Amino acid sequence: MDKDATQGAAGTRDGAPAPGGGAAAGDAWRWARAEDLKPPTELHTETAHPARMYDYYLGGKDNFEADRRAAEAAIAAYPALPLLARTNRAFLGRAVEYAAGLGIRQFLDIGTGIPAVGSTTEVARRVAPDARVVYVDNDPIVATHARALLAGHRDGHTTVLQADLRDPGAILADPGLKQAIDLGEPVALMLVAVLHFVRDEEGVDEIVATLRDALAPGSALILSHGSPDFAPRSSADEGVRVYSRASAPLVLRERSRVESLLGDFTPVEPGLVQLPLWRPGPEGPPEGWQAVSAYAGVALKV
Ligand SMILES: C[S@@+](CC[C@H](N)C(=O)[O-])C[C@H]1O[C@@H](n2cnc3c(N)ncnc32)[C@H](O)[C@@H]1O
Predict the structure, then answer these.
(1) Closest atom of ligand 1 to CA, residue 54
(2) Does the Cβ of 60 fall within 6 Å of ligand 1?
(3) pTM: predicted TM-score of the whole model, two decimal places
(4) How far is the C-alpha of 292 from the C-alpha of 226, rounded, in Å?
(5) From the CB of residue 164, how many other CB atoms can be counted at a distance below 10 Å?
(6) pLDDT tens-digit series, residues 244-271
(7) 91 lines ligand 1 (CB under 6 A)
(8) Domains of the chain
């Protein structure tokens, strides 16, 4: 990947606050490579992107014609996709609330997606107003939207890095991350609906191990992952084909492979389960949940 893509809070534009305290104290979402973002040309709107397809499944407006076409093709192959996206988002909220309830105050959310209601920041702050969040995504549209949010919501505790999960060493060494997160203290590492965009041959096991190893005891890994285990074979195959034409591969993994990504972390109850069944709350999982073909879990470093 482009080495510069992970070089910390590099600058500002469009009135975004200067990184590293250049704005008024306590007033900065910090930015990686903000000056390099030149929307819309860098957004490659002619190619479908997973962040914008996901936005479409969630009923968002931050998507382009190519994204909508690809998303519709994926939904035609696997009609439960919008439900999967919604239940995944709900899982993210419940898991963040759980981690904040454990006393974790630092959140590293890799594969953030386009900011939406129920973001990590929003949920974590409900429990812990002092929670710090670092968002990492390799899609420039995510940073562009986060920057737009920034304009109305400066809080001093949120950092956005445009960087690639496939280079975890660069993420961990990023000055922006180091400024925001103390790796000597517990962190909730969030890999929610992102690892299925990383192929085995790109080193998915080593990537997750590198991130796990960097965390202090008391940290949590919040993970969800697409799987073929609960979908008809033909749907899973067609979904993979649709994504292979978009800008990211889709690698659906069966249970044992997803479980192996937790490494030696200890899963909390109810363990790694079909996504809607992770602590669904008193109202239970939504109607049609059986079709949601993904796993979710939270595991702790003891
Ligand atoms: C399906 S969305 C999930 C968003 C959010 N985590 C959630 O669960 O609501 C996947 C996100 O991962 C990002 N992504 C995919 N591959 C990535 C990579 N190699 N590095 C960083 N981000 C990546 C995409 O741009 C997209 O925003």
Answers:
(1) 1
(2) no
(3) 0.88
(4) 9
(5) 20
(6) 887 788 999 999 999 999 999 999 999 9
(7) no
(8) 3-13+28-300 (3.40.50.150)
